[in-house]
Design goal:
Length: 183
């Protein structure tokens, strides 16, 4: 079971310029969504980000809302949150695959988005993954968005002079030939 394994988590990046995050959540299972939101907010705020929230009807609408916000609003990154629990029909597969594919396509276009849409077999699995004191998948999605924002700013800084400062002693991005950057 994945919940019993340990894994490495990157330290949150620090930023020289304020960060604006938008959480886009489908609150179909309100209690699970609330836990995901709590974890995402806490992680965003720990990195000094301003965090806003909008709700959409379901997981399929999350990529559309993120895409619209990326084009029409002033956010640095996005946190996609929701929960899809397997039911008796193949609709589960459609919702899981299409919401994930939509977010991936946005990411490939340069949108900094962390995917925290849970795709689970049971409510119990969702509760464990959403709980900020347990698996904290909402916090993990926010951390992913923050790391993508940091990368975006790192590469943009080479052209515009805007940058970020990592927390901790050093970091290295795979393929970075310039070596570690000191904080």
């Amino acid at each position: 079971m994945a919940g019993t394994e340990t894994h490495y988590e990157l330290p949150l990046p620090g930023f020289d310029k304020p960060v604006r995050l938008l959480i886009v959540v489908a609150p179909y299972y309100r209690d699970i969504a609330d836990d995901l939101i709590a974890g995402a907010r806490a992680t965003g705020e720990a990195a000094g980000a301003t965090v806003d929230l909008i709700e959409v009807p379901g997981a399929l609408e999350i990529p559309t809302a993120v895409g619209m916000a990326a084009r029409m609003a002033d956010y640095d990154g996005f946190v996609a949150l929701g929960c899809v629990i397997r039911g008796e029909t193949t609709h589960y597969d459609t919702v899981c695959n299409d919401s994930s594919r939509g977010l991936t396509m946005l990411g490939l276009q340069g949108v900094c988005v962390g995917n925290g849409i849970l795709t689970v077999e049971t409510r119990e699995q969702a509760e464990v993954r959403a709980d900020p004191a347990r698996m904290n998948k909402g916090g993990g999605a926010a951390a992913a968005a923050l790391h993508l924002i940091a990368l975006s700013r790192k590469w943009a800084a080479r052209k515009t002079g805007i940058g970020f400062k990592p927390q901790g002693e050093s970091f290295r991005i795979a393929g970075d030939t310039e070596g570690p950057t000191r904080a």
